[in-house]
Amino acid sequence: MRIDILTLFPEMFAGAVSSSILKRAQDKQIVGYHLHQLRDYTNDPHKKVDDRPFGGGPGMVLMCQPVIDAVVAIEAMDSRPATRVLLAPTGEKLTQKMAEELSKLPRLLLVAGHYEGFDERIHELLKPREISIGDFILSGGEVPAMVILDAVVRLIPGVLGHDDSPRGESFGVCDPTIAGGLEYPHYTRPREFRGLSVPEVLLSGDHGAVEAWRREQAQRRTAERRPDLLSSSRQVVKSSSRNVNDSTI
């Protein structure tokens, strides 16, 4: 997979893509990261990429020209079709299911905004998939872009040590009855610590009993902490396919 990131602060990603799982994916040549400075694409001699909003109000708004021209130029750098992702608080909320969908794509182009947001015509012309990581406001789209990077890349086959590693995690497909629920508790050595012992079933060697215990614990934890996930896991949701060639530019 190729991942392009358009941002005003590419230096923020240096540590993220050169550490841990993201670095491992690149070292294995499973994923390639390409950082792009938005100011390199502006026609303004002073490298300006934003301006005051029409109608008044606080903050600055990212202008159409640099963003649109940057996306067109970046997409031309590789023959693989790019799925445009614009990080914005007005977008659909990121979920594990969405991360799984994105992990199957050949190329992502993440556009990280800043300041007060994007000129609305950027949304209309690019027709990107708009994604938010939660109901809160950050200074820009760089941190959300890093969240998407981590959530998506680890799901690509070959990145983690075992391809089944993500299956039992919270929000993943751990069991048909609790698909999308929270993960069961984990234990490791020592067997006892400060008066707390590892559940005997995990030491029994009975794989069937262990799986039943984990399933019951996952259901209980989900019911106590996120009952909304139990109801949503019983609904079959058909994901809508997006044609990356439906753009107007």
> Mean pLDDT, as a whole number?
89
Task: Write the H/E string, N to C.
Answer: EHHEEEHEHEEHEHEEHH
Structure classification: alpha/beta
> In what range is the share of β-strand residues?
15-25%
Relative helix content: 25-40%
Query: How would you sum up the major sheet?
Result: 5 strands, parallel
**Total beta strands:** 10
Number of helices: 8
Distance between the termini: 23 Å
Taking Cα atoms only, what radius of gyration do you get, to the nearest Å? 22 Å
Low-confidence blocks of residues: 173-178, 236-245
Q: Widest sheet: strand order?
A: 2-1-6-5-8
Q: What characteristic shape results from the CA principal axes?
A: elongated
